[in-house]
Amino acid sequence: MAIARILVDGYSLIHAWPDLHRGHAPHSAKARDALLARLTLYHDVTGTPLTVFFDGQGAPQGTPKAASSRGVEVLYSPPGKTADDLIERVAYRMQAYGEVLVVTNDIAERETVSASGAHTQCCEAFISEVEAAAGGMHQDLRTHNRREKDRWQRGSTHGPKP
Asked: Which of 98, 97, 100 lies closest to 115 in space, CA to CA?
């Protein structure tokens, strides 16, 4: 069965991916935006929907909530709850719709969601997947552009003259 949804511990993934927060704090809006941009690209390549969870208390007061898109949903935990609480709840409930993958470096969290039947992956392995998917997409685009350029050049030098 295919993965129905990937559940991501947002701050865990940001901390494991230094490129996302170079020059600014891991809990910054810039780091969150960089993460969401990479995950949106991953969704565009794979078609697998993702939900990214952030601890609501981790964001500074007045931080605007990131907008969700069709393929990448963004959720902040409410007061008194953690992102882990939400991930556990969603992982359990999503089992009825197919397999769920939880991405986090929190070992206790991975053990908890595994016990409920979800698959887990450490952040570093998922980062490698995201980067490979992006690299594959860029290669596909280069190949397509090269073909189109060749086709255009053949058409302009060998095609019928008006």
From this structure: 100
User: What are 40-64's pLDDT values in tens digits?
Assistant: 999 998 899 999 999 886 555 666 5
Q: How do the domains of the chain map onto residue ranges?
A: 3-158
> Nearest to residue 89, comparing CAs of 22, 7, 144?
7
In 3-state terms, what secondary structure has residue 75? Answer: strand
Residue 73 makes CB contacts below 8 A (sequence gap 6+) with: 49, 50, 51, 52
**Fold classification of 3-158 (topology level):** Rossmann fold (3.40.50)
How far is Cα of residue 19 from the mean position of the Cα atoms in its chain?
15
pTM of the model as a whole: 0.79
Residue 59 near residue 66 (C-beta atoms within 8 A): no
